[in-house]
Amino acid sequence: MNDDVRNIVLGVVAAGISAALGWVARTYLWKRKLRRKQAFFGLPDNSESLLVVNRGAAGPEFAVMRYDVFALLELAALIKDCNAHAQILPHDTARQGFGERTEFCVGGPASNRRMAAHLSSLLPGVRVNVDAEPSPDRGSFLIGSERYRVENGKEEYALLARLTAERSQHPRPVFLFCGQTSITNQATTRYLARNHERLARKYGNNSFALLLKVINSQAYGPDVVEMVEDVTRAAQTPLPAPAPRNSHRAP
């Protein structure tokens, strides 16, 4: 074997080794990224999860608002990327605890009983005005001492939370997507899909609650979203009980 042939063979071998090392490195990084994503969402390979959705105010018995359907599609893609499976349940049939399976709960407490229960037990510092009568505070959020009112199509708020059950052997998280309108529900799921890596680096597997603002949804849909603030502490601190009304009777 002359020098030219030997150099060619060595070059081919070196190229093959480099390609193999590159493939191994890319595979390792991809798997590490996948494991971090699975840990954040509580979705190991072939695990089961719940998609709990509210029902529309009109239409057939199991009618879901259009934007809530889009929100479910956003979440279904995340779940599939984690090599996990999802079961969709209407809010009034999801009568079970949490912690054994990851749960994604979509919709405000006015149309989602499951969301109302989660807010009451896990985020007692949050109150959502669900009055049917029109008023400036209708649909508003009260978080701690701050109130956030809705301006339909202009400024709308949503709560994104990742919460885990305490003293559970398998603390799978529950994710809450509680918007003031249906389009803000989709905006919240899209925000999570786009920012889950950053959120995982910041919070790890700990609980958090973020207040988001959807800007000019009538023009931009669910795409323009900004984080107002981290409201975890205020949301987890119970609000003081309202003062009882005094009853005055005529003598």
Automatic annotation (TrEMBL):
Domain of life: Bacteria
Keywords, sorted A to Z: Membrane, Transmembrane, Transmembrane helix
Transmembrane regions: 6-29
Protein name in the entry: Secreted protein
UniProt organism field: Streptomyces azureus
